[in-house]
Specification:
Blueprint (H helix, E strand, L loop, with lengths): L1 H13 L7 H12 L4 H11 L3 H10 L11 E6 L2 H5 L2 H12 L12 E6 L11 E3 L2 E3 L4 H13 L17 E3 L11 H21 L11 H10 L6 E6 L8 H8 L1 H15 L3 E6 L7 H13 L16 E6 L9 H8 L23 E5 H13 L1 H5 L9 E8 L5 E6 L4 H7 L7 E4 L5 E3 L18 E5 L5 H15 L5 H18 L5 H17 L3 H5 L2 H9 L1 H5 L13 H24 L1
Parallel strand pairs: 1-2, 5-11, 6-7, 6-9, 7-8, 10-14
Antiparallel strand pairs: 1-3, 3-4, 10-11, 12-13, 12-14
Helix pairs in contact: 1-2, 1-3, 3-4, 6-7, 8-9, 8-11, 8-14, 10-11, 11-14, 17-18, 17-21, 18-19, 18-23, 19-21
Length: about 600
């Protein structure tokens, strides 16, 4: 007990007993104690001066925090569709058998637990697992056996073979962003242009957010700069949880100078003095090196006070680690998490640029977006805008995985065709491509002449290739399970809708479905899109809907010969959700108007 208290005391001291640091405190305490016991939660609550229920709510929200023992070795198998295609299911069962465990069970001696998790951002080198949040790539049956033996003898993670944890960049094609940057060059260029001059170049570039939404970055910067108040923040959204996306992992690993200087340039333009990198929990392996990069920049005058000798250019950065939660990739949910709370999306308005982190003007931008700021500082907005298309300027990073010879990261100017990417990555006969991850769009061969651009096929970067031997129904079913698992439960349409969608897909997979269920899936997708609180619920039906519209035979061959009406109709099942949604909408309207 005394040791537990000492661990908590050290974590509280490191974070100045600041309640907004609650998630960081919990993560660090768990790394030493393996789980958050009731007495540990109580010590943390007392040390922060917050109710115990606040600590409990945070622990229960994040999938990488545990309020029950999960073992000294917590193994999580990535269960994205690309891991399935590479044989993760058989490896999962093999490890369970070797360790004599059931899924999610902790071994009798408290040594280990084995379970599934969502995409870990290793789609180009799977199957992958996380062991105590550190990624192990290229899993094989032999490697599973070796890991089981290391667990059996109790070997510390630091003594495991280094090749287990090796993560490749797999850069296959470069244009401008995936090139080294002379340290300080972008900062010097921005300072030479001046704050307003740099703002003008950002707007001239027509750079749009690379996280998927495509909002004009210069407009966002200007909104935050002009918002009332003296304190402003920059948040680098490195929570790339969309299945099939791993480009930000590569930028942070090998091009951190571009990302960090891009954040500083954003701070210079907006008038912010503090920045956060919200690093997804699955990228725990990047934390130490990224922290060294930040420390190096600070030591060389590229972060801190009077950057590069420019009076008033004060900006510093700290890393905030996530703990498992796809919804935290949404800007308002991410800011809630930064404040030490469950990462549930906020009701909007107001917008983040006026009321964000701690109620202050905040810019939340994607890793790739901020990295592009260095290009614009050096070469100017007009030059940047000459690449790509008029509406979609510059280059785009594409994370390619699935049935191809050369999975990895490809950089293209906007406007590249889907067919060109398939050719470059060595894809053979292709049945379909899922672009934009689980929330994106399913593309058939008839559409391969379409282009990657905001005005055609928009994407945060995921590009998953499916060959002729792949069952598109199972692809959609995997995504349905993903959304049911990742729904934060805040709004009823998403919480209930994603669960119903998953259950219907399972029912069809078991041969118990009929056309009634197929029609329900269509209505359900529309209901979630129309009534959900945030983008997760709004897009949760996309993959199933597209699969139904474009690959209907994959569903029909599983249906029963005759249609039978379900005991409870979809309308009856969703009626409580409709009533609650109507009530919530009315209350939100009153809040805004009042």
């Amino acid at each position: 007990m005394a040791m537990n208290s000492d661990v908590v005391g050290r974590a509280l001291a490191r974070h100045r007993a600041d309640p907004t640091r609650l998630l960081q405190i919990l993560r660090e305490v768990q790394e030493e104690l393996d789980w958050i016991a009731p007495e540990t939660a109580r010590d943390i609550a007392d040390g922060l001066g917050v109710p115990i229920t606040r600590v409990q709510s945070v622990v229960q929200f994040y999938s990488f925090l545990y309020d029950k023992p999960r073992g000294r070795y917590r193994v999580l198998f990535s269960d994205n569709i690309t891991d399935r295609m590479l044989g993760n299911a058989a490896l999962f069962e093999h490890m369970l058998k070797r360790l004599k465990l059931r899924r999610g069970q902790t071994s009798w001696d408290g040594a280990a637990s084995v379970d599934l998790t969502s995409c870990t951002g290793m789609c180009d080198q799977g199957p992958a697992i996380l062991v105590n949040n550190f990624a192990v790539t290229r899993l094989t049956r032999k490697r599973v056996d070796e890991i089981c033996e290391l667990i059996r003898i109790g070997a510390p993670l630091g003594e495991w073979p280094a090749e287990f944890f090796h993560v490749d960049d797999n850069i296959r094609r470069r244009e401008t962003l995936l090139t080294p940057l002379e340290p300080g060059a972008a900062l010097d260029a921005a300072i030479a242009r001046g704050r307003q001059g740099m703002m003008d170049e950002m707007k001239r570039s027509n750079l749009r957010g690379r996280g998927g939404a495509g909002f004009p970055t210069g407009t966002k910067f200007e909104g935050a700069r002009n918002a009332p108040g003296a304190t402003r923040y920059i948040v680098c959204n490195a929570d790339e949880g969309e299945p099939g996306t791993f480009k930000d992992r590569v930028l942070l690993n090998s091009f951190s100078t571009r990302v960090l200087e891009g954040m500083a340039i954003a701070g210079y333009v907006v008038g912010a003095t503090k920045g956060f990198i919200y690093l997804r929990g699955e990228y725990r392996h990047l934390q130490e090196q990224l922290q060294r990069d930040i420390d190096s920049m600070r030591a060389s005058g590229r972060l801190g006070a009077s950057i590069r000798g420019a009076p008033g250019f004060d900006f510093d950065i700290e890393i905030h680690m996530g703990a498992g939660g796809y919804v935290c990739g949404e800007g308002t949910a991410q800011v809630e998490s930064l404040e030490g709370k469950p990462g549930r999306p906020r009701v909007r308005p107001p917008s983040m640029v006026s009321v964000g982190y701690l109620g202050k003007p905040t810019v939340v931008d994607n890793v790739e977006t901020l990295a592009h700021c260095t290009e614009i500082a050096i070469e100017g907005g007009a030059s940047f805008a000459r690449r790509g298309t008029k509406t979609s300027t510059g280059t785009k990073l594409v994370s390619v995985s699935g049935d191809c010879e050369r999975p990895g990261i490809y950089e293209y100017q906007f406007g590249v065709t889907i067919g060109r990417i398939l050719q470059d990555c060595g894809a053979g006969p292709v049945t379909a491509v899922q672009i934009g991850g689980a929330s994106g769009v399913l593309i058939t061969p008839e559409e391969f002449s379409r282009r990657i651009a905001f005005e055609d096929v928009s994407t945060a970067g995921a590009f998953m290739v499916f060959g002729p031997d792949r069952d598109i129904f199972e692809v959609a079913r995997n995504f349905a399970h993903f959304f049911a698992h990742e729904s934060c439960g805040f709004c009823t349409p998403c919480r209930v809708g994603t669960a119903i969608q998953r259950n219907i897909m399972d029912k069809i997979a078991e041969g118990r479905g009929s056309n009634y269920e197929v029609n329900d899936l269509k209505r359900l997708a529309e209901f979630m899109k129309r009534t959900s609180h945030c983008g997760l619920g709004e897009t949760a039906g996309n993959a199933v809907r597209d699969a139904l519209n474009k690959f209907r035979p994959a569903f029909e061959r599983r249906l029963r010969a005759r249609d039978f009406a379900p005991a409870i109709s979809l309308e009856a099942a969703l009626e409580p959700a409709r009533r609650i949604t109507a009530r919530d909408d009315a209350e939100a309207h009153l809040d805004v108007e009042g």
